[in-house]
């Protein structure tokens, strides 16, 4: 038995998410179908580091899977890359110890969120950025986003009823920049882990702050009260990108 | 009768091109269907400045059309923008004299061509850039592209059998840059007009020069011999963007 770690990218537009679901097109299933073929008809389970939602994209999703015997790495990557649908690409494959687990090994994830603030929206970005055509004061967003840095209980930024008990996470990078030519706001967040819909709820809150509908201190308020109803709406999935995952040694 | 000029953008992926064709989904037809509704069931013909091919995108296509009576401009823009499919957007609408013709009034067009040189390809760009995974020497392309500047007979860069008699055109800007983060080559061409598939043939030739398969002087050779067979292959439409059209007063 040999364990492989692969870095993959995918366009989330035509998937119902990463995780396998009955009767839905998912990234996990498409890769498992290909591995089944490459593994002489024996099924292979794919484990993903992050379970991206429907419409959410990835540049650096990490998966692991086991094969009965060792394979030449580039051949395996090439076979996986060319035989999966063209909205999935396999960037690299490496052998790892059987102790490596894509999801449970300690790691940092970096997410990006793209907001199209152009008027009217850019049709070429409709699946790749969330359109936000309302007035925004960039400096308010720049100020509020700093409150996300550090170790906090992010209960107020996740969906209620989550089965996760410990909602404390650390955000080590929280940044926003404005790309003028494409009229894009680009949010970047890096942290030890993100709760379900956390990034999208943080972005939704920051946009409402930028729009003046929530006070600039609202991030702090949501963190201390842990009250989901005080946060902004959940931003759509089409603007969200899982950019990179880095594992601690 | 009032003539309107509109600037539109569209994602070319799901269209068979700009120009109306029977039994094909086209930009012209989608806009005409919307104008028919906005014009109380009376048909309206849309004239486009450039006839983009299947898969080709536009950020600044210009159209003109006539309506029996004057309309409030933003209402007309909004109606057109929201009632056309979401892969078309109407950026602006203005009244023009009845002498204005989107196609025949003298103008400059700017095209961009995006090449994804990443390995493996970026699945999120598969409809928006042409993938070129072969080795490229950027300096060869930078050198060769200068030969396109100026007034030339571009017969060697257009499809044979074209009905156009005069194939002399002027290119006033021809540029290439490398966007490292996205692994994109971005070509920009600006000129008095471009022949059928001219930009795609020029890009195909430049890529072959960059790849070392054609000598760096090949652009000059194709221009002087007017021989299509000496040029490179026609690059795919998905990387081509009609960026902007500027009319001379």
Provide an overview of this structure:
2 copies of one chain form a homodimer. With 249 residues, chain A is of the alpha+beta class. Chain A folds into 2 domains: 95 residues, 2-Layer Sandwich (Alpha-Beta Plaits); 141 residues, 2-Layer Sandwich (Alpha-Beta Plaits), CATH 3.30.70. In chain A, 21% of the residues lie in helices and 30% in strands. In chain A, strands 1, 2, 3, 4, 5, 6, 7, 8, 9 and 10 form a 10-stranded mixed beta sheet that branches. In chain A, helix 3 crosses helix 4. The first copy, chain A, is globular, with a radius of gyration of 19 Å. The mean pLDDT of chain A is 96. Chains A and B meet through strand 4 of A and strand 4 of B.
Termini Cα gap of chain A: 22 Å
CATH superfamily of the largest domain in chain A: Pseudouridine synthase I, catalytic domain, C-terminal subdomain
Number of strands of chain A: 10
What's the CATH class of the largest domain in chain A, please? Alpha Beta
| CATH architecture identity of the largest domain in chain A | 2-Layer Sandwich
The SS-based structural class of chain A is alpha+beta
Instruction: State the helix count of chain A.
Output: 5
**Low-pLDDT residue intervals, each spanning 5 or more residues of chain A:** none
What overall form of chain A do the CA principal axes indicate?
Answer: globular
Major β-sheet of chain A, in short?
Answer: 10 strands, mixed
Instruction: Return Rg of chain A in Å.
Output: 19 Å
Number of domains of chain A: 2
Strand content of chain A: 25-35%
CATH topology of the largest domain in chain A: Alpha-Beta Plaits
- Let me know the average pLDDT of chain A: 96
| Largest Cβ-defined interface | A-B, 19 and 19 residues
The succession of helices and strands of chain A, N to C, reads EHEEHEEEHEEEHHE
Helical coverage of chain A, percent range: 10-25%
Instruction: Write down the oligomeric state.
Output: homodimer
């Amino acid at each position: 038995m040999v364990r492989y770690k692969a870095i993959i990218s995918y366009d989330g537009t035509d998937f119902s998410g990463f995780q396998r679901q009955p009767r839905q097109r998912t990234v996990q299933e498409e890769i498992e179908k290909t591995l089944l073929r490459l593994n002489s008809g024996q099924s292979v389970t794919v484990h993903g580091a992050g379970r991206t939602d429907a419409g959410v994209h990835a540049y650096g999703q990490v998966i692991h899977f086991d094969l009965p015997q060792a394979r030449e790495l580039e051949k395996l990557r090439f076979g996986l890359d060319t035989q999966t649908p063209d909205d999935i690409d396999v960037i690299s494959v490496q052998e790892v110890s059987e102790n490596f687990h894509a999801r449970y090994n300690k790691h940092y994830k970096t997410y990006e969120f793209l907001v199209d603030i152009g008027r009217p929206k850019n049709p070429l970005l409709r699946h790749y950025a969330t359109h936000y055509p309302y007035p925004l004061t960039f400096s308010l967003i720049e100020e509020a986003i700093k409150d996300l840095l550090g170790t906090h209980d992010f209960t107020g930024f996740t969906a209620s009823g989550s089965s996760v008990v410990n909602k404390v996470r650390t955000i080590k990078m929280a940044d926003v920049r404005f790309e003028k030519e494409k009229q894009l706001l680009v949010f970047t967040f890096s942290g030890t882990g993100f709760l379900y819909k956390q990034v999208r709820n943080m972005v939704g809150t920051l946009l409402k702050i930028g729009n003046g509908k929530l006070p600039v201190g609202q991030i702090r308020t949501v963190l201390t009260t842990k009250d989901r109803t005080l946060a902004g709406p959940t931003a759509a999935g089409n603007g969200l990108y899982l950019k990179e995952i880095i594992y601690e040694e």
